[in-house]
Specification:
Layout: H1 8-11, H2 17-25, H3 31-46, H4 55-63, H5 68-77, H6 83-98
Helix pairs in contact: 3-4, 3-6
This protein binds zinc ion.
The site of zinc ion (ZN) has 6 residues, from helix 6.
């Protein structure tokens, strides 16, 4: 039986100090980069429909030469199965914690 783990992102709101630092240390890219990805997806999805893949996220990762297997699995583990899900599941919690600018 698979163990259903609570998504790490759901705990983000309560994290502080060392716990928050630990979370940031395990991110697939810097905090800034994740914020930039969310801004990028928001802009791109403004006039394009999500095609239910991580196509736009992949483009962002490739342009920046990020570690995309690692980044993709982090997104998936946090409910970001496609570009619109990243915006729906990750962006609100992320922006609440780290601000929207
Ligand atoms: Zn989608």
């Amino acid at each position: 039986m698979p163990i259903l783990r609570k998504r790490e992102i759901e705990n983000l709101e309560q994290m502080n100090g060392e716990e928050l630092q630990g979370f940031l240390d395990t991110l697939p890219a810097g905090q800034e980069t994740v914020s930039e990805l969310l801004d990028f997806l928001e802009d791109e999805l403004y006039d394009a429909e999500c095609n239910h893949s991580l196509q736009l996220s992949m483009k962002f990762m490739m342009d920046r030469k990020l570690d995309f297997p690692k980044f993709t699995s982090w997104l998936n583990n946090n409910g970001g199965y496609c570009d619109c899900k990243v915006m729906e599941q990750i962006a609100p919690i992320w922006r609440k914690k780290f601000g929207d600018d």
